[in-house]
Amino acid sequence: MGFNIRDAISKTMVAIIIAVIIIAILGGVAAYFATRAPPTVVKTVVVTTTAPGATTPVTTVVTTVVTTTVPASPTPTPTPTPTPTPTPTPTPTPTPKPKKKILHKQVLYIISNEEMTRIQMYKAGVADIAAVTPARWKDVNNTPVDGFKLRLVIRKDKPRLTIQYVVLNTMKAPFNITEVRKALAYAVPYDTIIEHIFGGLYTRLYTIVPKGMPGWTDYNIIHYEFNLTKAMEIIEKLRKEKGFDPSKYTIVVSYNLGNTARAQIAALLQNYWSRLGFKVVVETYSWPEFLRKVDHFDFDVALIGWIPDYLDPDNYLMPFAWGGAEFKELKWYKNVAPADVGKYISKVDAWIDTEKFIVVVGPKGSGASYTGPTNKPIIVLSYVLDEEKTKHNWEHPLSMVTIGAPGWKDIVISALCKASRMILDPETREAIVNAAVIRFNHYVPMIMLGQAVTGENYGTWVYGMYYPLTTFARYDLVWEDPDAPVIDTGVLGIKNGPETMVIVTFGWPDTIDPAKTYETFGWEILWETTSKLVTYWKEDTTPIPELAVAWAFSKDATELYFVIRGGVVAYDPWNDKTYPVDATDVLFCIWRIARLNLPGSGSWMITDFIDVNASKVLTEEEFDEVAKKGLIAMYKGREKEIHSLKELLDFFGYEGKTAGVVMFKLYFPYVPIIHVFATGVTSIMAMEYMLGDKYEEALKASNYGKNPAAWAKYVIPSEDDPSHKKVRWHPISTGPYYVADIKEGSYILLKLNPYYWNATLWEELYGYKPSK
Question: Is 207 helix (H, G, I), strand (E, B) or coil?
Answer without folding.
Answer: coil
